[in-house]
Design goal:
This protein has 167 residues and is an alpha+beta fold.
Length: 167
């Protein structure tokens, strides 16, 4: 049995240069929120860390109330509401970060992008960050729901390479 990409979520990140004082591997742009859901970002790191804490708190509150993991769609909706509130609240600035939330609900993969405005969109495949246009164009050509998992990982790596080279 070969796993297909429609049964999985593949996520990659470029390590990039994080400064001369940072040890390799100490700064990551991906964080786990629950056992079945993780998040990555493009933008301001401190805003991301604050949203990770909020997302984990939302997930924990849901678990304490319902004794089950929060569905990815509800987590994204509640997190987007927090981000949207910051766009019109006095005394605070909007979050300077776009999020990509990936996870599973009953063997169904989810990939959702959440903008600083609080708007969120579901994707089959996407790229974000610097040079995301080249990545998205590349994925439009290469992505197929019938890809095997190994081929999807290879496509994700090639998409990173495309983002760096910008062909």
């Amino acid at each position: 049995y070969q796993r297909r990409v429609r049964e999985a979520v593949v996520s990659t990140q470029s390590t990039g240069s994080s400064g001369i004082n940072a040890e390799y591997g100490t700064i990551t742009k991906m964080e786990m929120i629950t056992k079945h859901c993780g998040m990555t970002y493009s933008g301001m790191g401190p805003d991301f860390r604050l949203l990770v804490r909020k997302a984990r708190k939302i997930a924990q509150q849901y678990y304490l109330q319902f004794d089950e993991e929060i569905p990815v769609s509800q987590l994204v909706q509640r997190l987007a509401n927090v981000m949207q509130e910051y766009t019109h609240s006095g005394g605070v600035r909007p979050f300077g970060v776009s999020l990509l939330v990936a996870g599973f609900d009953q063997d169904t993969p989810y990939l959702v992008q959440c903008d600083p405005s609080g708007a969120y969109f579901a994707w089959k495949a996407t790229a974000m960050g610097k040079n995301h246009v080249n990545g998205k164009t590349f994925l439009e050509k290469r992505y197929n729901a019938d890809l095997e998992l190994e081929d999807a990982v290879h496509t994700a790596i090639l998409t990173l390479k495309e983002g760096f080279e910008g062909r």
